[in-house]
Design goal:
The chain is an alpha/beta fold and 393 residues long. The chain is built from 14 helices and 12 strands. It binds D-mannose. D-mannose binds next to strand 4.
């Protein structure tokens, strides 16, 4: 697999020379500064690519070329947005970049309720607490329908948390939830979020699926012509949230997407952490089912609680059998190599990591510290090397 590392570009607190020391060879990044829906200009892509290559890496995956919210809502004349997406793809292909990760979550990207939950032995991790999320939805946002989304015990704990919470606790909860909003510029307060949610009123899962299929039909033929691989990132967490429908959460959802436009260019980012947060998901099994459509892997682990809460475990701990999963991905690579494919190697990155040692002094993006991810990469590398070694004996 191609060992890669997510770099947020020139504003990332972690520099490319530092990333070199992790042993990663691929960079995963995006032109984060370009507003959603606008074309990524060829010369801007070329300049970023030159910076990455100059530091000794390949830009192996774009994460993400984001999809404008109007496409997700199916709102108005979308032809210019589709054309812009295709143009960005063409500009990337011209620069030799052929793999694009994106998601189809309405409004939100990833969601956590705690950005620095303590880990036994020291360090911190990202955590999703169902009671805190329920407290936010029911008591801070005032979304009455959320009553139906949480079991009675969770609602009860939510009420207790809210009653005991201080202003600062509630601020921290809002901050944690808002940290997962995709755009660097969209950060809502409670009133702003209520307002933003009204744009999605009445949007059902079926509507979202129809809008998604339309997007795929608009862009996948171009991806095929350009020799590109699109790979959707699963929902995180894999469940409806804030009353917003989600359609990339489980095995059935992924089967639907793969069938909606049956082309290799319509592929999957196998994110073991996102899928692993749903107890119904057998991640190695999902990977095996869709192996030939996996173009990128996010490897991380979660430990789940019965109430729907989960936290990010160390990469080889937690509920997902990481060794089995890597075994599936390596078998798929061997299959591709046997076909003589030049794109046989699947880029992987250690997804997220605990904040360890002096990580907390660096002010990096939540989930993206240097030492925690370096530990994750080193552990995953060990598994990959051991399995590869076994398969060649
Ligand atoms: C979080 C990431 C996601 C991912 C996007 C892909 O850490 O895995 O933000 O990049 O959902 O579009």
């Amino acid at each position: 697999m191609i060992e890669s590392w997510r770099w947020y570009g020139p504003f990332d607190k972690i520099t490319l020379p530092e990333i070199r020391q992790t042993g990663a060879t691929g960079i995963v990044t995006a032109l984060h500064e370009i507003p959603y829906g606008e074309v990524w200009p060829g010369d801007t892509i070329a300049a970023r690519n030159a910076e990455i290559r100059g530091a000794g890496f390949d830009w192996v995956v774009v994460e993400s070329l984001p999809i404008h919210e109007r496409i997700k809502r199916g709102e108005g004349d979308l032809s210019a947005l589709f054309a812009n997406y295709r143009q960005s793809m063409a500009n990337l292909a011209t620069n030799g970049i052929h793999t694009i990760c994106y998601n189809f979550m309405p409004l939100l990207d990833w969601t956590r309720t705690d950005l620095a939950a303590p880990v036994a032995g020291g360090g911190t991790c990202l955590r999703f607490s169902a009671p805190r999320m329920a407290a936010f939805e029911l008591h801070m946002l005032g979304r009455a329908e959320a009553e139906n989304d949480y079991p009675a015990e969770v609602r009860q704990q939510a009420a207790i948390w809210f009653q005991q919470s201080t202003e600062a606790d509630r601020e921290a909860l809002l901050h944690a939830i808002m940290s997962g909003l995709p755009g660097a510029y969209d950060r809502y307060d409670v009133a702003g979020l209520q307002q933003a949610l009204t744009l999605y009123d009445g949007l059902t899962q079926d509507d979202l699926r129809a809008n998604y299929k339309r997007f795929l039909e608009e862009v996948v033929p171009t991806a095929e012509e350009l020799g590109m691989r699109l790979c959707v990132h699963p929902d995180d967490p894999p469940r409806d949230i804030l009353g917003l429908p989600r359609i990339v959460s489980d095995a059935d959802d992924i089967a639907w997407i793969m069938d909606a436009v049956p082309s290799r260019a319509n592929g999957l980012t196998l994110c073991s952490g996102s899928l692993g947060a749903n107890p119904a998901n057998d991640v190695p099994d999902i990977a095996a089912t869709h192996a030939d459509r996996i173009h990128f892997a996010h490897l991380r682990n979660v430990r789940k609680d019965p109430d729907g809460s989960f936290e990010e475990a160390a990469h080889l701990d937690g509920d997902t059998d990481m060794v089995a999963l890597i075994g599936v991905l390596l078998a798929e690579q061997r299959r591709r190599q046997a076909e003589g494919r030049t794109d046989a190697l699947i880029p992987m990155r250690p997804d997220h990591g605990h904040e360890l040692l002096w990580d907390s002094t660096r002010g990096t993006h939540p989930g993206y510290p240097l030492i925690g991810r370096l530990r994750g990469l080193a552990e995953l590398r060990g598994v990959m090397r051991a399995l590869l070694h076994d398969s060649t004996r």
